Automatic annotation (TrEMBL):
Family classification: Belongs to the zinc-containing alcohol dehydrogenase family. Quinone oxidoreductase subfamily.
Highest taxon, organism lineage: Bacteria
Ranges for domain Enoyl reductase (ER): 18-340
PROSITE patterns: QOR_ZETA_CRYSTAL
Subunit architecture: Homotetramer.
Any Pfam family the entry gives: ADH_zinc_N_2
Keyword terms of this UniProt record: Cytoplasm, Metal-binding, NADP, Oxidoreductase, RNA-binding, Zinc
SUPFAM superfamilies, sorted: GroES-like, NAD(P)-binding Rossmann-fold domains
Protein name: Zinc-type alcohol dehydrogenase-like protein
Cellular compartment(s): Cytoplasm
Length: 343
């Protein structure tokens, strides 16, 4: 392999994950950074539901390999001419942009405004577990739901996290506890319930049953906030019943059918979406907020406030390993994050 090329994992066809061509090893031209882009040498990546959704079987083919992967930890190799935030040799972590090639490659281009300094206390694999889920959790809680980051403002306030043991839930539970909210997590298995409790959830209820009757034993008739990380339409009626008057609901899960938002009208409740790729996708004026929040997250990690949610570590970064990681996610039984690192 020449100095001008790099290894990557990509796809031409959208196939079931047990098909050997669902993800394949490819060789691509090594990119060069322009503008505010960083060229990052990838050390570790993690796999998210978005990877599985993008790769899902469909009647479509690509002329050139499509590279997935939106969670990277690595080292800045080179900077574009307009970069001011990082320099070569800096250790970084980020989620990237859904509209650009992903990070399942030896080198990767990313806009520095959505990149953070890697937590000093974590290795690359531990850091790679954090960006996408942390940005989603942070934006969902603080930007979309409007939760205050001052503990004194949240005294007596509660949040219900639907799917508390998943990737986003694992971070959101920790952040919500840090800012002083009472956290009720949902789980349907004992392992996921124990995981959520270990991360700080005060109470656990089952998301396969109605919410309100399960909240009453905790002296909670209704909750101030709901963060839905699992099947929005399945839980919509329960969410509408459980949300407090003038409360706020945020979901990250798209629906297959329209929601009856009239259910929350009499409560003057807010419903809002969170999609962490919005800022980079639309190049919003405030996209640098992702740089700042990742730096703040690094500080919280290094202080021991937030812990990485890595649960499985695989190696090396190649097609066979990534097919295995995708299959693990498709099982629907993963707790925390699956990370793939180079040997």
């Amino acid at each position: 392999m020449s100095a001008q090329t790099m290894k990557a994992v990509g796809l031409y066809k959208y196939l079931p994950i047990d098909h050997p061509e669902s993800l394949i090893d490819v060789e691509l031209e090594k990119p060069a950074p322009g503008g505010r882009d960083l060229l990052v040498k990838v050390k570790a990546i993690s796999v998210n539901p978005v990877d599985v959704k993008v790769r899902a079987p469909k009647n479509k083919t690509e002329d050139s390999p499509k590279v997935l992967g939106w969670d990277v930890a690595g080292v800045v190799e080179q900077t574009g001419p307009d970069c001011t935030l990082f320099k070569p040799g800096d250790e970084v972590y980020y989620a990237g942009s859904i509209t650009r090639p992903g990070g399942n490659s030896e080198f990767h281009l990313v806009d520095e405004r959505i990149v953070g300094a890697k937590p000093a206390t974590l290795d690359f694999a531990q850091a790679a577990a954090l960006p996408l889920t942390s940005i989603t959790a942070w934006e969902g809680l603080f930007d979309r739901l409007g939760v205050s980051q001052r503990r004194e403002d949240n005294e007596g306030k509660s949040i219900l996290m639907i799917g508390a043991a998943g990737g986003v839930g694992s971070i959101a539970v920790q952040l919500a506890k840090y800012v002083g909210l009472t956290v009720i997590g949902t789980a349907s298995r004992s392992e996921s319930a124990e995981w959520a409790k270990a991360l700080g959830a005060d109470y656990i209820i089952n998301h396969n049953e109605e919410f309100v009757p399960q909240l009453k034993p905790f002296n909670l008739e209704q909750v101030d906030y709901i963060f839905c990380l699992n099947s929005t339409e399945k839980h919509w009626k329960s969410m509408a019943d459980a949300i407090a008057p003038q409360g706020k609901i945020c979901s990250i899960v798209e629906t297959a059918e329209p929601l009856n938002i009239t259910l929350i009208k009499n409560k003057s409740a807010t419903f809002v979406w969170e999609f962490m790729f919005t800022r980079p996708m639309f190049q919003t004026e405030d996209m640098i907020r992702q740089h700042h929040l990742l730096n703040e997250l690094s500080r919280l990690v290094d202080q021991g406030v937030i812990r990485t949610t890595i649960k499985e570590k695989l190696a090396p970064i190649d097609a066979a390993t990534l097919r295995k990681a995708h299959a693990m996610l498709e099982s629907g039984r993963t707790i925390g994050k699956v990370v793939v690192e180079n040997d």
